[in-house]
Amino acid sequence: MRRYFILMLIVVAGFLFVNFNIADNNIPQEEVKTEKPQYHVPDDVQQIIDNSCYGCHNSESKNEKGKKKLQFDKMSDLKTYKQVGSLADIADVVTEGDMPPEKFLKKYPERQLSKEEQEKLVSWANNLAKQLTPED
Amino acid sequence: MKKGKVFGLIIVFLLVLIQFVPAGLPDTIAENENDLLYNNQIPEQVAVILKTSCYDCHSNETNYPWYSYVAPVSWLVGKDIREGREELNFSEWESLSKIDKAKHLDNIIDEVSDGDMPMNIYTIIHTDAKLSSEEIEQLANWAEDYAESLFE
Asked: Quick check: A85 and B105 CB within 8 A?
């Protein structure tokens, strides 16, 4: 009988210990989660980006202005508000037809976005921005 | 001598004439219920910076100095204020979505840190609107904190 009691005590103590540990671990884990959301770029959108945007907007770009404004390969490292800001800017400039720039398109007319590509890129950017943003 | 006089008269005549071309200066509206400063707890130093350095073009509360009514200056001022309000109008801040707020705050940090805003043509005359490096830091820090708080 006494043995059972001791065993019970050990089980209860073990239970408490485990619970405390879980409770402790939970806090930092949640913090990490809110910091850097990762996301998947669908293939068709990735293709558009590769063809018409990535050449200037990457972390190794020789186009300093483009590099400074946006780096597609480093986007998921940014804070969420900056990702959302970039996505909203992408939607704006593509809708307005300001990107890719005219000067660039004169040299590489094949990189011009078709109407369909434009819409695809804009709706991807808008949807992803919404996903990353908590409800208003 | 006579030639110079005629020339001067023509210039004066033209200057008078162009005053009749509408400048398209946007109206000033003092009370805006969706205004950024009216609706949010913003540190006083930052509020002062925004009012002094940004609000003339990026809000409905434009202070027009006398010369801004005189053509051709008025044309230039009118164009800059129309474009400024269209890009970002702090008087309508609360009507923006969270996404647009994040976009603007992100752009504020970049523009101000790069010295692209306020525009040179504005700070040449409004010397008090020129931002010191300390003010740039205050403004950028505020914008970053505010943007991050939208995503908590």
From this structure: yes
